[in-house]
TrEMBL record:
InterPro entries: LysR_HTH_N, LysR_subst-bd, WH-like_DNA-bd_sf, WH_DNA-bd_sf
GO molecular function, one term: DNA-binding transcription factor activity
One Pfam match: HTH_1
Organism name: Paraburkholderia solisilvae
Domain HTH lysR-type intervals: 1-58
Biological process annotations from GO: regulation of DNA-templated transcription initiation
Keyword terms, alphabetized: Activator, DNA-binding, Transcription, Transcription regulation
Signal sequence residues: none
Keyword Transcription regulation tagged: yes
Segments passing through the bilayer: none
Protein name as it appears in the record: HTH lysR-type domain-containing protein
The keyword Ribonucleoprotein appears for this protein: no
PROSITE patterns registered for this protein in UniProt: HTH_LYSR
Length: 306
């Protein structure tokens, strides 16, 4: 049972409507309904009765609602006490360029709100470098895209991102459909990271499985310059939806790659718990919460929570 399920349930009872509660909570109605169903399954009892006018609690739901309200008040009081203790210290967090566009600012704002006395240092670089920095204890935690089995790290699988074909709308050969398979890209000019990049390695495996020989017209190992080339009409690229988060890329066309393996996993990785400072532990919680919130609110294109 999760705290958010309690908050969701209390909000639904108070509003008497899934739709109104979802609007207040900032989540889609289907996600809210799914969480309520999971709660009912865990408790093995029906908590809400659906009616033509909305929803009303059952007898079990009413009893649960009273206790849930009490539990949430205790949790809120505990959170307030923790914040008033004014956690301080410093923490270094690493994000890949594609991830920082959607997650970076939201995370920094959340940290400033929850822990204003924690000094935050952000590092933006390729995921391979982030893994090396984490191994060298130069950063405390990072969002990575594959696990390093030999490392003694704390690893939390957080979400998966679908990959998208991204390009200017008038690029010759650019698909106009919502989805496309790699094998259907034909001679579309592609601009991709070089072979040393983790995404390129993953794409190479996908190309091979699709029996597709891509027409790569340029290799760029920097997201900003790569997207400059795409906006300039030099070719299309294949990236996770987060690459479109920055305002300058909003006008680009995006087509979801429908091949089943066109997915990038996102792992929240940190040094081991016994090495992580209290500020680091707090930052890890905030980073995970912020990512989940962005996905739940539909602000992380193509992302799905684990």
């Amino acid at each position: 049972m999760e705290l958010r399920q309690l908050r969701y349930f209390v909000s639904v009872v108070e509003h008497g409507s899934m739709g109104k509660a979802a609007l207040e909570l900032g989540v889609v109605t289907s996600a809210l309904s799914q969480q309520i169903s999971r709660l009912e399954s865990e408790l093995a009892t029906r908590l809400l009765q659906r009616t033509s006018g909305g929803v009303v609690p059952t007898d079990a739901g009413l009893a649960f609602w009273r206790q849930a309200q009490l539990a949430l008040r205790h949790v809120d009081d505990a959170a307030l006490a923790a914040r008033q203790a004014r956690l301080s210290g410093h923490v270094t967090v690493g994000l890949a360029p594609s991830t920082s566009g959607v997650l970076g600012l939201a995370f920094m704002r959340a940290m400033r709100e929850r822990y204003p006395d924690v000094r935050l240092r952000m590092v933006e670089t390729l995921s391979g470098y982030l893994a090396s920095m984490l191994g060298a204890r130069q950063i405390d935690l990072a969002m990575l895209f594959h696990e390093e089995p030999a490392q003694r790290w704390s690893v939390m699988p957080l979400l998966d991102e679908r990959l998208f074909l991204i390009g200017v709308r008038d690029l010759p050969g650019m698909p106009t459909t919502k989805h496309v398979r790699l094998a259907k890209l034909g001679t579309l000019p592609l601009i991709l990271p070089s072979g040393s990049h983790g995404l390129r390695t993953s794409l190479a495996a996908s190309f091979k499985r699709a029996k597709y020989e891509p027409r790569i017209v340029a290799e760029v190992d920097g997201l900003a310059m790569l997207m400059d080339a795409v906006r300039g009409g030099l070719g299309a690229t294949i990236q996770p939806g987060a690459a479109l988060a920055r305002a300058e890329n909003a006008a680009l066309a995006s087509v979801q790659i429908s091949d089943p393996d066109a997915v990038r996993p996102n792992l929240l990785v940190s040094v081991s718990d016994d090495e992580l400072s209290p500020a680091g532990l707090a930052a890890r919680v905030v980073l995970a919460d912020t990512a989940r919130e962005l996905v739940s609110q539909g602000r992380w294109l193509g992302a799905r929570l684990r």
